[in-house]
Amino acid sequence: MATQTEKDAADYVEKHKIVELMENLTSMLFYHRPENPREFLMEQLKQLKMSKQSHVKGPNVFNNADLDAVFEILDPANQKYITFAQYKHALRTLGIDNINECPEGVNEDRISHETFKTEAMQGLQRYSATYAQ
Questions:
Q1: Fewest Cβ atoms closer than 10 Å to its Cβ: which of 18, 25, 27, 85?
Q2: Range(s) of the domain holding residue 19
Q3: Residue pLDDT tens, the chain, 133 long
Q4: Domain boundary among 60, 78, 94
Q5: CA angle, 108 as apex, 103 and 113 as ends, to 5°?
Q6: Within 10 A of 116 (CB to CB), how many other CB atoms are there?
Q7: Which PANTHER family did the record assign (predicted)?
Q8: Rounded CA gap, 113 and 103, in Å?
Q9: Which helix (DSSP H) or strand (DSSP E) does residue 82 occupy?
Q10: The whole model's pTM is what?
Q11: Number of structural domains in the chain
């Protein structure tokens, strides 16, 4: 059974989304692989502070070009759509757990490039919102 101190620590970690923050910072570190990791992390934390103060979204590992590349991999025949299963798998691979289960095109099992990018960006913004906590 957990002690009160352990419960308090777990509550603190959950309240301040410490695990999510560390996951985001680690992802940024592995993605960019800077020469000076400590300096890079300090700069990321400065950006997080500024984004919180200015109510601008936090840093994100993926950009529009990255999402275009993911879609192109999923649509090698250039049909301009992917299946719902591909959409779900891609978003989960990008680290987005809370996905829209009814995106535009789901009834036809044809998720367009634009819908995929919109849903991915929204999911990534929700994920990066942990920075603003």
A1: 85
A2: 4-60
A3: 789 999 999 999 888 888 878 887 887 788 788 999 999 899 888 877 776 665 555 556 677 888 899 999 999 999 999 999 999 999 988 878 789 999 999 999 999 999 999 999 888 877 665 555 5
A4: 60
A5: 55
A6: 25
A7: EF-HAND CALCIUM-BINDING DOMAIN-CONTAINING PROTEIN 10
A8: 12
A9: strand 81-82
A10: 0.59
A11: 2
